[in-house]
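TASK: fixed-backbone design
INPUT:
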């Protein structure tokens, strides 16, 4: 994670600070920038948020070359010392880094007995640049690039150079041009400044000047890189209030865009020669993206007659899951930059499988790694806890599975059309669910002091329980777990007492009597039960949701749970958009 930005333009310091605000979702425990003033580089850095850096920067004069960083700690505690940028001991180079230098201990040995100012892996790069500099900055950068192992996007500025340098491997890095020259770890962010951008390939060094950019492999041979016009980023920096709440309230509108976007981009559209040959289907992702795969795999099995295996990306990478030329793997990622997910693509492609990206970010690392991409059209999502992207992932994955089912003859054209029509009722259903916000706020007051929450559901309600539980723990810090409802009696029932609350989701009529039994069993042990359903259950606090087809119910029934997490976190005074220890885009394994 971490966000990096570099600028060669008028007002480079203030533009870097603006960019760091947009990048803050990538990490927010410390931040800093380097202002290059010709023969000297001035460093300004602090622990805390960008707002703290802005205060510190008030006395810093403008310049036209700067690099900046917002940090999510991997090596070394959260403190100003470990904040980026780092200077080489002679002050010639300043660097910022996103990723992990895996061999930094060996590199420290190679550097000899140097005293380092920080505990980070990143600082070694600044020291190496000094050691490898023999009069030519580009050559020094190339020599250092060859020494590094791991994942890294590194921005470098050097005294007396109106250029920026970058070293890129397995961490996102985009180069762009507009009124000036820029580099950044996020294409949406850089598109606020650049109207022509290039995604830097892995294993590449970039030399960026106001006149253009040159790209080299680490051995110094040139690489051709295509520039293109990025989609313009949304205007987010000025939004007041919490992004999470705003993003939840956008869901009805985004559901329409997700469905239309899917068909506008051509639907499933697998290569004709392979379309009929897929025997194994995977949904692969992390966090909320994994939960969306879990949800639609339950739907596909239950209602569309398709077997899909959902796998957590980090498990897939090392887990020896079978892959061959008959494998179709869908990689789900809001950001398109999650390192575990991108690594999993490499495994599938190396074994001849077909990699299909389901993402919210066109031109992301995931898009470039996969054979085909479909955009979920959720628009920029900035709260660390994902909400609208989840709902849009559900729409897109459901449409993909409907197309697979139709192609295999597992469902009729008539039922295909029926499901599409049913989908059109979802925005209304979500709008009605949002009307319960006041009631949810009251429920949040009731659960905010419990010691733990359990979320339960069966079949496609179980993944909804997983997502509701994830949202709550991410932003309220209350311990919570999800259980398939029938499994509760095999362990977790031991924990039920008046200090615990349970949220039971029930959208599948055929199983609602089972839910009623679970509710009674829990209530009998003194725990408070909230039911999320279109029907009322005895011994529980009901949160009524509109009735939709159970195959699509998860898209609406998760909304009260997203709101419940938000309202609970708010009533506990948490920073909902930037929860402790987390980041929106996790670009390290
Ligand atoms: C992080 C975020 C989660 C997100 C997960 C996957 O852990 O905090 O909210 O669900 O990454 O992110 P992706 O961008 O791949 O969907």
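OUTPUT:
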């Amino acid at each position: 994670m971490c966000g990096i930005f570099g600028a060669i333009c008028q007002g480079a310091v203030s533009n870097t600070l603006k960019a760091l605000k947009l990048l803050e979702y990538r990490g927010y425990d410390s931040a800093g920038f380097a202002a290059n003033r010709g023969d000297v580089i001035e460093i300004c850095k602090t622990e805390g948020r960008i707002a703290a850096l802005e205060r510190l920067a008030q006395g810093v004069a403008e310049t036209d070359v700067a690099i900046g960083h917002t940090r999510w700690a991997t090596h070394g505690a959260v403190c100003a010392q470990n904040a980026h940028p780092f200077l080489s001991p002679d002050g010639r180079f300043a660097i910022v880094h996103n990723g992990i230098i895996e061999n930094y201990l060996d590199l420290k040995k190679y550097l000899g007995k140097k005293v380092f100012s920080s505990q980070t892996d990143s600082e070694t790069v600044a020291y190496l640049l000094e050691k490898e500099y023999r009069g030519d900055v580009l050559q020094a950068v190339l020599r250092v690039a060859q020494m590094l192992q791991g994942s890294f996007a590194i921005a470098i500025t050097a005294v007396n150079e109106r250029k920026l340098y970058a070293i890129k491997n397995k961490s996102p890095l985009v180069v762009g041009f507009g009124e000036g020259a820029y580099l950044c770890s996020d294409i949406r962010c850089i598109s606020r400044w650049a109207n022509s951008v290039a995604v830097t390939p892995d294993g590449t060094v970039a030399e960026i000047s106001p006149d253009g950019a040159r790209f080299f492999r680490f051995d110094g041979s040139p690489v051709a890189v295509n520039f293109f016009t990025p989609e313009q980023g949304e205007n987010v920096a000025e939004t007041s209030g919490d992004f999470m709440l705003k993003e939840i309230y956008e869901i009805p509108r985004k559901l329409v865009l997700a469905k239309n976007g899917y068909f506008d981009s051509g639907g499933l559209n697998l290569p004709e020669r392979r379309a009929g040959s897929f025997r194994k289907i995977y949904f692969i992702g992390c966090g909320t993206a994994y939960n969306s795969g879990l949800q639609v795999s339950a739907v596909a099995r239950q209602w569309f007659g398709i077997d899909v295996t959902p796998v957590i990306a980090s498990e897939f990478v090392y887990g020896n899951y079978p892959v061959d030329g008959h494998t179709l793997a869908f990689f789900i990622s809001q950001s398109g930059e999650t390192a575990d997910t991108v690594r999993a693509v490499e495994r599938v492609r190396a074994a001849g499988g077909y990699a299909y990206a389901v993402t919210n970010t066109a031109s992301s690392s995931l898009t470039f790694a996969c054979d085909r991409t479909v955009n979920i059209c959720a628009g920029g999502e900035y709260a660390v806890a994902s909400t609208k992207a989840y709902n849009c992932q559900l729409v897109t994955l459901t449409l993909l599975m409907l197309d697979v089912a139709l192609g295999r003859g597992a469902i009729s054209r008539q039922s295909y059309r029926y499901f599409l029509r049913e989908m059109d009722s979802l925005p209304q259903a979500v709008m009605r669910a949002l009307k319960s916000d006041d009631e949810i706020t009251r429920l949040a007051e009731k659960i905010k002091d419990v010691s733990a929450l359990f979320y339960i559901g069966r079949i496609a309600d179980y993944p909804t329980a997983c997502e509701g539980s994830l949202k709550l723990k991410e932003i309220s810090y209350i311990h919570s777990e999800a259980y398939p409802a029938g499994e509760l009696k095999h362990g977790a029932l031991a924990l039920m007492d008046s200090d615990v609350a349970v949220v039971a989701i029930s959208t599948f009529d055929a199983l609602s009597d089972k839910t009623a039994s679970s509710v009674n069993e829990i209530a009998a042990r003194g725990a408070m039960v909230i039911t999320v359903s279109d029907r009322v259950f005895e011994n529980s606090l009901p949160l009524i949701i509109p009735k939709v087809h159970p195959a699509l119910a998860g898209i609406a029934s998760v909304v009260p749970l997203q709101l419940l997490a938000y309202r609970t976190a708010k009533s506990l005074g948490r920073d909902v958009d930037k929860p402790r220890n987390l980041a929106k885009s996790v670009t390290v394994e």
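COMMENT: Confidence is low (pLDDT under 50) at residues 235-239.
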